[in-house]
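User: Show me sequence and structure for the first protein, then do the same for the second.

Assistant: Starting with the first protein.
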Amino acid sequence: FDIWQDPGQICYGWSVTTGTFGTHVVRESSVTHNGPYAVQFPVASGDTRLIKTDYLPVKPGQPYRYNAWVRGTDTGDELEIHVNNYKSDRSVSSDTTDTIDVAALGTANTWMQRSAVITTPADTHYIKIRAGLDGQSGTAYIDDLQMLEEFPSFKAYAPATTAVPADGAFHVIDFGSEIYDHGNNFASSKFTAPSNGLYHFECQLFMTTVSSLAFGEYGEMYFERTRAGSASTLGRTVQGADGTNVMTIRSSIALELLTGDEVDVFLKTVGKPVVLNNTITYTWFSGRQVS
């Protein structure tokens, strides 16, 4: 909103879709988060007011991070920020709307950040960002709204199969629950590279045994990269017995991947079977593209 030169009309690149400019939406210069101007939604109890950007070009299947700073004089006022999706011909996408944030302001007269990562649908080439309030009793503000490309990343936990036999064979670990998956590239416990680049992966496995591990008993973990049907073992890590009935193995690795390469995690134990702890605190697999 820092390019907002004319206080008599909405900022360039935006339109007022619900409400009236000058009554429900005005330019604000004294209460801003950063820069000369912000949007103010003045007191007008019960009235809905919404502003929306023009069409913004995006890449299909690309994750974007959306940030905005919001503020209000009434803690119960609910400020909404959404993304409307459109196809290449600017008709409505199959996934019509994604939500960045819908929440009460919570704290009066304090700037608060709202943020979310949203992956554009496969048929989406344009978006419009929509923001506003659905009824209010106080004055509210929005400033520093950003849309930035986000590198693909994920974090998963909770292996569906928690028991690993002590048969000396490697078993793929099934991470069945996602904390996040920016770009939707993690499925069936595998990350599939969406493009050529440098990626970084980390994994931690915490496990218990029925009795203390003795000398010569150990666990071994590695990352497996599959390229065009051919698998490679990478980042192999071994944790030996220490006389207790718990064992933690952790490894990380940076990999140059090509589009379509897959990465997953394998584990074997020698001496005693183990049971993997299935919480995000102890057992997880994460990765991200870094360039």
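Switching to the second protein now.
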Amino acid sequence: MIEFKIQGMVCGGCANSIDKSLQGIDPDVKVTADIKSGTIQVESHRDQAVLASRIEEAGFKVESATSY
């Protein structure tokens, strides 16, 4: 699991946009968003850098990422 701190994720619509973007590269991805903290937890077989790049392509800035 990877936790991303996302700049600009301020609502459920933002979280849905990120989720849909990640599903485009991994249909089995599991995304859990916490709007208050501005974080998402991602379970995916894809590489952290690939996921971060995809999040940024969706229009959001990845501030940090932590793998668990």
